[in-house]
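Input sequence (200 aa), recorded before submission:
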Amino acid sequence: MGSKDLMVGHVFLKKTRIDRLKNVYTFEIEKDGPFITETFMSQFKELPLNAAEKRNLSQSNRYELKFFKSLEEDDIHPLVEDFINGIKSYYGKPMIVEASSTGAFLCLAAILSGKLPKNQNWTFELTDLPVAVFPEHLIKSPQSLEEHHINFQFHPNCWMNSFPTLKKAPQTITTTLKWRDYWSETIPAENHTLGKKQAA
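Predicted structure, token format:
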């Protein structure tokens, strides 16, 4: 293997969407790069991709998904704790939390840890996060999704737009995720959840 993957994440904290930037939380995650065999389609059997998605999911796409899919608690737990401690000054105050990709992953991990305070006037705007590969072992408190206002979206230029299956939550999450489209008025917003399989 030998190589290392370094992902840098940013989380932006604002009073309103139109406010100038108020605060930025920046962090890094470094992991060993995957073996080539770990990016084969056979490593993504748990994703119910349709035939077109399977054809179009490139190796570089799978490489990115593998990074998120393989994150362990030791990788993310210290960052979650640091992030939660860092936003304590916002308790009781309105806040918009904006993050994409790795930053959005951290926010979702913090929410699903169950350690964020309830009854806060906070909105999480999470962009370009493939929730379908969010590691189930990091889902400590799935009900916390119902205790916070969270919007998910893919940027129009994001490659994930062509893979609607990536919007589907792991089976541990039964809450319907709210997906929005801020960049187009022509595509209706959809709610996505991946329910447990029904017995035949």
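Checked by second reader. Residues 185-200 have pLDDT under 50 and may be disordered.
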